[in-house]
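Anyone else keep sequences and structure tokens together like this?

Example one:
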Amino acid sequence: MIFVTVGAQMPFDRLIRAVDAWTGERGRQDVFAQIGPTDYRPEHMEWTKFLNPPEFNACFRDCTAVVAHAGMGTLITALELGKPILVMPRRADLHETRNDHQLPTAKHFGERSNVDVAYAEPELSACLDRVESLTVDGRVGPTASPELVAAVRSFIEG
């Protein structure tokens, strides 16, 4: 299953519409989306507006790949679980978010082999075609490394 998630704060219809169209074009029956607070109703994939934490965790655990906004929580969860992830950053000029903080996040994480980035709908279809074949280059741990903790402690303590 490809798991699509947009978070719970704002609609992200640009992503959901594009994935829904791709799902229909490819005849996929294995795409499930958490679409958030929107009036749009996907026609070609199963969906729900919101998931409770156990449902969300089950979708993440059971999926073959993740498609999402470039939110840190989603990216970190995918990296912790070793899941390939395709992100499309929300854009402020399209009123998908309050500012463009997801653009540099997507750029930074896009340098990893298991993170692909589509900045616009024309790129998304090709990225979706290859998302399940992204190479997973290892997982990140659920806690910060001892080196990072030591550096932060040193900075705080002066």
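And example two:
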Amino acid sequence: MDVLIAFSPVIIAAVLGGASAGVVGVYVIGMRMPFITIASAHAALAGAVGGNLLGVNPVLTGFLGALVGAIILGIITRNHNFDPNAALGTIFSLMLGLAFLGIGLSPGPKTAALSFMWGNLLFVTADQLWLMLLVFVLLILFIIVFNKSLKLLLFSRQLAVVRIPADTLFLLLLLVEASVITINLQVVGGLLLYSLICNPAIAALKIARSYKSALVVGGIIGVISAVGGFVFSYMLNWPVGACIVLFSSVIVFGVMSVKKFQVTGRNYA
């Protein structure tokens, strides 16, 4: 009981971070744009490292970095004849280069800067917990308010362009994703965030029979991945972020071994 009480902030952070990542991942994977997560994660990583270098709150600069990356991608995708995945590689490379440059320029020990790459759930603070809760609530409100439009966007972006302001909605979705990524830097780190967002969504889209159930299952698997990874990390004395990613990967492989994997948006619209 004492151990449970001592780790209660960590468990809360794992639940909030895993749930938000799993839900956002359903949209990322459903629209067949998983590389967005990598680019956004490294934009947030570059911002956080830059903030640490300049002595500014890294959570704020991490969000600003992810925000800039999301806006650039949103502007690029307004050209519907342009494949957004073609720009993601460049954005990813630029942000990764800036992140490593910031780490290299950081004076003294690199521990603080490197923590943004690998994450450490054990060091979560009360302020971060409140921020994670706020982002999770905003994510749920965003889904509720734009539910029908998001469903259409997930089903077919080409059709959504005709029926709704799809470009604006897509940009808003990118900004929400940027927020989720930023708060999870402390949980698993920028280099591993791709797995926490994509793995639960892949498993959810495999299991779920509807759009709503995919969101619920994605959130649940995200929570299981984060909490289960932390438990195994504690038991084996292994890095938390790596355990979370490995745990989520095992879930995906387990699910995919049972059923044939399909991930077209129209199956969940």
